Amino acid sequence: MINLFILQVLNGFQLGILLFLVAAGLTLIFGIMDFINIAHGMLYMVGAYLLATFAGLTGSFWFGLLIAMPVAILFGLLLEFLIFRRLYDRSHLDQVLATFGLTMILSEGVQAIWGSAPLSVQMPAILSGSVRLLGIIQYPVYRIAVLVVGLLVALGLYLLISRTRMGMLLRAGASNRPMVSALGVNVGRLFTLVFAFGAMLAGFAGALVAPVLSVDPGMGESVLILTFVVIVIGGIGSVKGAFIAAILVGLVDTLGRTFGPIWLQMVMDPSAASQTGRTLAPMLVYILMAVVLSIRPTGLFGRRIS
């Protein structure tokens, strides 16, 4: 049982890291631009499809990743230039409706280009196999690499926001956007940079998960729901909050799905415990969100970028 618990904790951390990569860009966009982008999950999906395409064309995961990331950024910038910047001054309802419609269009477009059948990406040979962690526990090397890369990205993002001039502008833009504009900062260019950065992080998360999960047209919607939960728990505009909340959500979701039916067997018969556990497990992250909001209505770290 302890071995299963350790494995699921690691899986929970991996899910949390992937959620953070998607949530970090979205919380920056929402915190600085006050823009609700329902289509952000599509960038995650597009990143996975681009990696699958370019890895297949080049025969190399690494070359595929090297090509997919700039293309994902350009795709995000194209959406920002053609659609999103026309919605910045509109109401949140207009933003939600427009980006939801864009989500449907992109989902259909992906199916028209790649089909509806799931795609698979060959894992790089150097990261295949598993390593012994504790006792008899074997854990895939690729999943460990995802954890390490995700933590390095989180550290780099923290240093960018807290130690650089761009980070200073991001923090200032989140706290008082009109004042930043009055001081001569090109807010439009700042918005474009934020959008490009968010697209890169979301596309990178999709590319990382492609060798682990199947690449399919519905993967963007599923991750977007958990991403919004992460942002609400962590606090809108807080990258630190997004990181902590993503880890919490990843652990609660993974451990709940694995151990919920097992724990319920203590008070219920096995068949009923299994069915009830499968029903209750997806609700746990929303219960966590409700508990956090009942204590801190603005989330763990409020609205300020930190």
Please name the defining characteristics of this protein.
single chain, 306 residues, two-stranded antiparallel ribbon, 12 helices, 2% strand
What do you see in this structure?
By secondary structure, this protein is an all-alpha fold. The protein has a domain at 10-216. It contains twelve helices and two strands. The protein has a two-stranded antiparallel sheet with strand order 1-2. Helix 1 crosses helix 9, helix 2 runs parallel beside helix 4 (92-114) and helix 2 (40-58) packs across helix 9 (219-234). The mean pLDDT is 84.
Topology, pairings included?
Elements (H helix, E strand, L loop, with lengths): L1 H32 L6 H19 L2 H22 L9 H23 L15 E3 L5 E3 H23 L1 H11 L1 H6 L4 H23 L9 H16 L4 H26 L5 H11 L3 H12 L11
Antiparallel strand pairs: 1-2
Helix pairs in contact: 1-5, 1-6, 1-8, 1-9, 1-10, 2-3, 2-4, 2-8, 2-9, 3-8, 5-6, 9-10, 9-12, 10-11
SS strand fraction: under 5%
How far do the termini sit from each other? Answer: 38 Å
Mean pLDDT: 84
Secondary-structure element order, as H and E? HHHHEEHHHHHHHH
**In terms of per-residue confidence, which ranges show pLDDT below 50 for 5 or more consecutive residues?**
none
Q: Give the radius of gyration.
A: 20 Å
The total of helices stands at: 12
Q: Describe the global form.
A: globular
Oligomer: single chain
Q: Total strand count, please? A: 2
